[in-house]
Automatic annotation (TrEMBL):
Residues 1-87 form the Arginyl tRNA synthetase N-terminal domain. This is Arginine--tRNA ligase. It catalyses: tRNA(Arg) + L-arginine + ATP = L-arginyl-tRNA(Arg) + AMP + diphosphate. PANTHER family: ARGININE--TRNA LIGASE, CYTOPLASMIC, ARGINYL-TRNA SYNTHETASE. A motif ('HIGH' region) lies at residues 122-132. The gene is argS. GO terms for molecular function: arginine-tRNA ligase activity; ATP binding. It is found in: Cytoplasm. It comes from the Bacteria. InterPro entries: aa-tRNA-synth_I_CS, Arg-tRNA-ligase, Arg-tRNA-synth_N, Arg-tRNA-synth_N_sf, ArgRS_core, DALR_anticod-bd, Rossmann-like_a/b/a_fold, tRNAsynth_Ia_anticodon-bd.
Length: 576
């Protein structure tokens, strides 16, 4: 059920009948204030200007031709020509009954697209840190949203598993094994990487071995490949533990590292040269991108092959775009990386389009995001200035949540405490990030995220458990709610309208990759339910009809909260 789309279609038809162009957008929006109805059509003024007639005169023509019988209780013209629509309460009630019986909360079926989403992207032989959090959870929320709508979503974990550093890592792994070091030393990947780098910088013989291994690895040497695979597997096994703890849907099958495109790179270079896009410049192979200029006003060059024959990230990313369109059959490709990557991505996309690897009609979207900051406004790091390991951040979130839960419920069993602390702690951490507009930086604050008041995950999770407790007290399940919904109170109508706007929110998140919109919606829904619950008795409603009707509103609220939190990758619990 998408009320906005339904109204837009009907108002567009009325506008065309009143003389507007067939491509006119009625600009239907949810009303900001109750006195303006539930929805507003805001396009009348601009269309009236084109038609050269007074806006209110055009609005009157539109309303006369507008068929909202059974949907709108009242339609009025306000101000210079706004069309305000007040939804009919009987129609609202009927939609609740329909949605409760429909699959996926009545979401409108979509024409499925193949959508590739590039997110998370950790490096090999390094542990994931807080810098990976935003890409991982924002990308995953979008993937979950698009999957729910019915699209074929390909999750692409573009891990950094290729490059010159692997000669160094292979050489150090070999040294460890030769010295009978325990493989478990790799469990602390940061120490392993630093030790390898130290050996590379201080031991000339080691560095020579490392450089030789780079050449052998790129040439497909079996020994180097096996050592490289071991490094990749150990790293991704650890990363998978973090994904599972974060309730992120990435699996080992979603790994599409830089190595996947290695065999494509010679052909890419040759093709770019043949098409006259790549030229020699100071020994390197360069593609000049006309839209970007240097300080002298000259086109900027993107190096795609170094003088020594080596390839760069740009080369891999061009091949990556080509692979995703031509091999995976993508209709749309989304990238979740921070804003510093924007120029790089737009440059390589331009090259990919000029080369004919990706058509202009196929969307390439950079859903960039800001940084996580501490209370002083600096990048969020440990006291020693190092990146905080993601695993340590998750541990602290669960520990803090456990203390909070014990304070509120000292009799909770250890098993229940573990389950609830995990759901609340991880949920609070993710929600604190997801609830912020992804394009902006935000301040990380434990105290604000782990509270049962305000726009937090615990507040919304508690609203869900509160509804579950109502059904437990009533000793009734949804199969026995067989009386229709009736809406007589204003708070019932407001809650119902919000519930029916769920698909509009999902559509926005799917289009823009903005999970904060879903967070705002869920918080507002929880607030509306709290007001409804306080002023509209449910179990003590006075008669069976009203009781069942309000139970149905509570049930749909619970289902919507649960589905919305699931889109964000946040768990619900039935007791807190």
């Amino acid at each position: 059920m998408n009320i906005q789309a339904l109204l837009s279609n009907k108002i567009n038809l009325a506008m065309i009948a009143a003389g507007a162009s067939p491509d006119t957008d009625a600009q239907v929006r949810q009303s900001a204030k109750p006195q303006f109805g539930d929805y507003q059509a805001n396009a009348v003024m601009s269309v009236a200007k084109v038609l050269n007639i007074p806006p209110r005169q055009l609005a009157d023509k539109i309303v006369q031709r507008l068929d909202l019988a059974g949907i709108a209780q009242k339609i009025e013209i306000a101000g210079p020509g706004f069309i305000n629509i007040f939804l009919d309460r009987q129609w609202l009630a009927a939609q609740v009954d329909h949605i409760l019986k429909a699959p996926k909360l009545g979401l409108t079926p979509v024409i499925p697209q193949t959508i590739v989403i590039d997110y998370s992207a950790p490096n090999i032989a390094k542990e994931m840190h807080v810098g990976h959090l935003r890409s991982t959870i924002i990308g995953d929320a979008t993937a979950r949203t698009l999957t729910l709508l019915g699209h074929n979503v390909i999750r692409a974990n573009h891990v950094g598993d290729w490059g010159t550093q692997f000669g160094m890592l292979i050489a150090y792994l070999e040294k460890m094994q030769r010295e009978n070091a325990d493989d478990m030393a790799l469990s602390d990947l940061e120490k392993f990487y630093r030790a390898a780098k130290k050996n590379y910088d201080e031991d000339k013989e080691f560095a020579q071995h490392a450089r030789a291994y780079v050449v052998k690895l790129q040439a497909g040497d079996e020994y180097c490949r096996s050592m490289w695979r071991k490094l990749v597997d150990i790293t991704m096994e650890q990363n998978q533990l973090s994904y599972q703890r974060l309730h992120v849907t990435l699996t080992k099958e979603d790994i599409m590292g830089e190595s996947l495109y290695n065999s494509m790179l010679p052909g890419i270079i040759a093709d770019l040269k043949t098409k006259g896009l790549a030229v020699e410049s100071n020994g390197a192979t360069v593609v000049f991108v006309g839209e970007y200029k240097n300080k002298k006003g000259e086109p900027m060059g993107v190096i795609v092959q170094k003088e020594d024959g080596g390839y760069l990230y740009a080369t891999t990313d061009i091949a990556c775009a080509k692979y995703r369109y031509q091999t995976l059959g993508a209709d749309r490709i989304l990238y979740y990386t921070d804003s510093r990557q924007h120029q790089h991505l737009t440059q390589i996309w331009q090259i990919a389009r000029q080369a004919g690897y990706v058509p202009e009609s196929m969307p390439l979207e950079h859903h960039m995001f800001g940084m996580m900051l501490d209370k002083t406004g600096k990048p969020f790091k440990s006291r020693t200035g190092e990146n905080i390991k993601l695993a340590d951040l998750l541990d602290e979130a669960i520990e803090r949540a456990g203390k909070l839960i014990r304070e509120k419920n000292p009799d909770i069993s250890p098993q229940e405490l573990k389950q609830v602390a995990d759901a609340v702690g991880i949920g609070a951490l993710k929600y604190a990030d997801l609830s912020k507009n992804r394009t902006t930086d935000y301040i990380f604050d434990w105290d604000n995220m782990l509270t049962f008041d305000g726009n937090t995950a615990p507040y919304i999770q508690y609203a869900y458990t509160r509804i579950i407790s109502i059904f437990k007290r009533a000793a009734i399940d949804e199969e026995h709610l067989n009386l229709p919904v009736i809406i007589t109170e204003d708070r019932e109508a407001v809650l119902t309208t919000s519930l029916l706007q769920f698909e509009e929110i999902i559509t926005t998140v799917a289009r823009d990759g903005t999970p904060h919109v879903m967070c705002s919606y869920l918080y507002n829904l929880a607030v509306l339910f709290s007001s409804f619950y306080e002023h509209c008795p449910i179990l003590n409603a006075g008669n069976e009809q009203t009781c069942q009707s309000r139970l149905k509103l509570a049930l749909l609220t619970a289902k919507t909260l649960k589905q919305g939190l699931d889109i964000l990758g946040i768990q619900t619990v039935e007791k807190m």
